[in-house]
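Please, structure for the following, as tokens.
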Amino acid sequence: MAEKPQPVEVLYCAVCGLPAEYCEFGSEFEKCKPWLIQNAPDLYPDLLKDSNGKEADKVSDQLQSTSISEGSSTSKQEEVKRLPGGKIKKKERQEIVIEKVTRNRRKSITTIKGLDLFGVKLSDASKKLGKKFATGASVVKGPTEKEQIDVQGDISYDIVDFITETWRDVPASAVFFIEDGKKVPAV
């Protein structure tokens, strides 16, 4: 009678999330080296030759101190989310982008993107914008498959005051215009 095959146990890198034997192909191999020396010395014997034991201890101490300080720092660590396989997904910034698009030489549409990131319900916001500016306003899916509000007419400069007064959670510093293809702060 044949033996039952046993499952293979895979050692995953604590730094990049890849299996330890694939760390050298990842984007953070330099950061992974101290962890590999300490936890998987048989996979990369060249790393042991290159570094002394003292250097490995220093680097592993630095690695441990950075992992502890990651929880306390809130600037760039919150913006980046690590996905399986070492891929990085950036968190969306909370900002409102207002863009004026002209069509048929006279008509214009003001597009408001990012209002939903502040917890504003877009259907309610489009109703308020339509009533305030006496125009048509609707929630539309944009080219990036995210919902945005299209308001008929050029109301781009009056809209900043209305947004900051109506929704107190939205600071004026988070509102941007797109002019000539460049993002310009509204304030």
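The radius of gyration is 26 Å. Residues 20-53 form one domain.
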